[in-house]
Amino acid sequence: YIGLAKMNPKLRYQTSKSKHPQNIHELIIRYERTASCYCRKYKCKYIQLNAKMGEQPIRIFIIKYGRSTHWKVLLTTDTSMNFVRAFELYERRWGIEVIFKECRGYLGLGKCQSRSYNAQIADTTLCFMMYQMLSLAKRFSEYETLGALFRSERDRLQVLTLWSRTLEEVRHLLEVLSCEAGVDLLACLSTVAARQTADFSTKVWEHLLCDSDDYAMPDLD
């Protein structure tokens, strides 16, 4: 489990260094100067403590952002988890919670009154399909215009076209040189390709030996 906890003074946690359970405010006063750390990645200050809530071992992260005076409490039952990992997992969970909140508020998720199991599954499926369509429409209309999509695709095609023309020129040059030298171009290239390892030059030879007119840029990784 991982999630936020309320700053409730009635909630008390038993740490290994204290004889009696303490609430979050008491833990902040006691450990802020001695056990606080700073996370550069998320630009926040946090206190990491291992404690128990009842009989359940937990790890507590008490977090404060920037110059804010307000603290937030992040709890997890995985006592080996570090702060960055816990923060990233909660970010994912928060995104899921936002999706469910928007679906319940705007698309009527969970309001199907049918007693049929299949009807409930169908209603939930249609609700999430509608959410995906609306999210895609929002992305196109607000974050990435059709003009931007067109320009990115045009640039990609221009790179591929330039690569095809370059291969044509290299192939023509090699044919002229082989003709002047009186050697068999295909035999020479086959010998070189067989001796080379799978690097960039080998991939170029393979494309040059290809009889197809469909030239694609080789993978440089």
Automatic annotation (TrEMBL):
BP terms from Gene Ontology: DNA transposition
Pfam families: DDE_Tnp_1
Domain of life: Bacteria
UniProt domain Transposase IS4-like: residue ranges: 56-132
Molecular-function GO terms, alphabetical: DNA binding; transposase activity
Protein name as annotated: Transposase IS4-like domain-containing protein
Organism: Pontibacillus litoralis JSM 072002
